[in-house]
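1st attempt posting a full record on here, be nice pls
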Amino acid sequence: MLSPDVLQKLTSIVGPERCKTSREDLLTYSYDAYVHEVIPEAVLFPKSTPEVKEIMKVASAQNVFVTPRGAGSGLGAGSLAKQGGIVLCFTMMNRILEINTANRYAVVEPGVVISEFQKVVESQSLFFPPDPGSATVATMGGAVAMNAGGMRGVKYGVTRDYILGLEAVLPSGEVMETGTVTAKDVTGYDFTRLLCGSEGTLAVVTKIIVRLLPKPKTKRTLQAIYDRIDDAGDTVAKIISSGIIPATLELMDKTVIKALEDFAHLGLPLDAEAVLLMDVDGDPETVERLAVTVGEFCRSHGARDVRVSRSEKENDQLWTARRSAFGAVARMRPTCVVEDATVPVSLLPSAIKKVIEIGERNRVQIAVLAHAGDGNLHPLVLCDQRDREEMVRVERAMDEIVDYALSVGGTLSGEHGIGIAKARYLPRQLSETSLRMMRAVKKSFDPQGILNPGSFLEHRS
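the predicted structure (as C-alpha cells):
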C-alpha cells in the first residue's frame, strides 16, 4: 500500500493538481484497450525529466511500484498497475522540442500524440512513417515502449527503425542517454533498440530522437473487391513476391465489411467476401505507373472491381473504412479480443483459411482483418467475457491461432506486444535460455523490480 507519507512526497514533486487519487480518477486509468482492469493507488502527471527523476528516486527509496503510461491505447494491459503502486502518465510531457530539417531528425517528449506529430513534420515536407491504428490518440512514448508498427509497416518498417536515441530515467532515478542525432552510430551496445519494445519494464523514456524521411510527393489509394477471400490472400502474397512493395496493403473480410457499412454507410459491397486497400507512394510518375500495375495485378488475380483514388481527399475517404474497422466490429458483441500473430507473408492465404477454420470449429465468431502486406494477422474475436463457457472456447481458439503461427515460423506478436495478454505463450516461442537472459537484463536495469511489475516476464496465468 502507498503510505500517506510516501504519497505526500510524490505529491510535493508534481503538485496536488497533477496527483490523482480519487476513485473516479483511478478508475479512468485502470484499463487500456485489453479486456482487463486494475486500479492503481495514484496517478502522477510529470511535466519534465527532473520531475520524473525525483519521482523514481522516491519510488526506489520506498520500494514503490511504478508503471509508465501514455494514452492507454495498448492491447495487452502493458500500461496497467498490475501489482498496485502508481501510474506515471506522460500526457502532459507533450512538447515537440526540435525539428531539424537539415539533418532530418526531431526531438519529442513521450506524450506527443503520433498523428499530431506527423501533421507537424509533414507541413515541413518531412515524414514519420510508423502509423498504428490508434495514432490519433496514441503517444510517441507508447510507440517506443511497444515498438508500434501499423499499416505502413510493409514498406517502411516499425518504430525501432526510426529511433535514433533516447533519454530515459532508470528505476534508481539516474538519467541515461542513448544514441545520437547522427544517421549512423555503432558505439557500444545498442541500448536504444533494447529500450524500444521493452514495454516499460527497464526505464522510463522522457525524450525521443526520431529519424525523419522526405515526405513522398504523392500517393494513390486502391480499393480491390473480391468475391473469394482466398483470391484476396493470394493477391497479397503474389504482389509482394513480384517485387512490388506498396506503402500499405490491408485486408478486410465480409464480417468487417458488413460492420463498417452498418456503422458508417461507406458504400462498401455487402456481397463481397474481402476488400484489399493499398497505397502506393513516391514521385508522381512512379505512383501513376504503380497504381496501374497494381490494379491490373488485382484484376488478374480475382478482383471483380478496382477503384483508384484521384486526389488526397479520395485517399482519405477510402482509408476511413480501414481506420474505423476495429470500432465498427467491436459494436457487434460486448467483447472484442484483438489478436496479432504474424506469419511469413507467402503463407498469408493459408493462414487466413486456418483462422477461419479455427473459429468455425470452436464455434467462435472471428472477423478477419490484416496488415496483409507483412503477414500481420488481426483476427477480431467477438464474444462476451461474462459467458464463461464461450470464453473457454475463445481461449482455445486463441491458443490454436498462436500455435499455428509459431508452427510456420511466425511470431506471437507483430506489433501489439506481449503485456499480460500473451505472457503465457512466451515459452512457446522463446527458449528458456532466451527468457533467462531477458530476466537478467531486467534485473540489471531494475534490481528492485519496481518498474512495471507483473509484466510479460513475470506474469503467470
